[in-house]
Amino acid sequence: MGKTKEFLKKKDINISAKTYFVDAMGGMAQGLFASLLVGTILTTIAKYIGMVDGSFFARFAHFLSKAGSMSSAIAGAAIGVGIAAALKAPMLVMACAAAVGYFANAYPGQPYAAGPLGVFIAVCLAVEFGKAISKETKVDILVTPLVTLGVGYLTAYLTCPIIAIAMNWLGEFINYATTMHPFVMGIVISVVVGIILTPPISSAAICASIGISGIAGGAALAGCCAQMVGFAVASFRENKWGGVVSQGLGTSMLQMPNIVKKPVIWLPATLAAAITGPIATIVFKLECSKVSAGMGTCGMVGPIGCFSDMSAAGTLDAKAWIGMAVVCIIAPAILSLVFSEAMRKLGWIKEGDMKL
Fold this sequence. Notes:
The chain is mainly alpha-helical and 356 residues long. The protein has helices at 2-10, 17-49, 55-73, 75-86, 91-106, 115-133, 140-180, 182-197, 203-210, 214-234, 236-250, 256-261, 267-283, 290-293, 301-313, 318-345.
């Protein structure tokens, strides 16, 4: 047992919840952002540039569209590299992780694919086995890729079909349930996804894995925006404009150390999410899908995704524009400020509790 621990330590293999559900999931989110998310943004921009008269704009729009579609196409590989980097894989193992990620993301194929969750499981196992065998033989250039790819492909073969069906079913259930019960599900999805956003867990990856879409995605977007904008406004006394930018356009995850010390500071943003969720589903019927739904106002990716999805569906009108402004920024800012100020007067939140 002691030799095993010593070997794992030498290979930098740390089997723990933090390693996989914080570090690896963080790498997964980075890979998603660098491929699928940016690809979606580029294709959306290309669509509107293409509407401008002139050959230059047409060519530029075509270029952006191609770049965007190709970025989205290699999402699995990008996720694989992101996870491998987070797990501190050697270069050869990291290169293999890209291949495993590309395979697992699309396997078993139409009509279902395992997506990010399939990539996560296959790549994590492949990388850890690859790290274990790396530089242990004289023919490392052959053995390491064979082990890494073999473990990754076998894991994908055994798990991805089940994951694909399960995630598709779960996503369809959530989307259908939200359509049938928009008020209740609007609250539940907004609060739950918003809460998932703030800890070091990837809400974007989870939303992408289950294929959340439609007004269910709008509720998820509302919850994420409520957390980010909510903390930015509620902590303005302590963090000023720097805090507004870092939390409102960056991530509410910055508040996790303060939440651990005093969980009650999480309440204003969470209450705001419970209100903005049904506003998104019932009043404005905002629609958002997959990764964008779990990004909130991080780089304004969530609102951009909502804009793109509703534009593609032909439902982007003046009401939708107002809805995005209200649900993503105005309502969470006002509600979080009201709740936090009330809690400060009650003594539940004190000066410095949300200091970054």
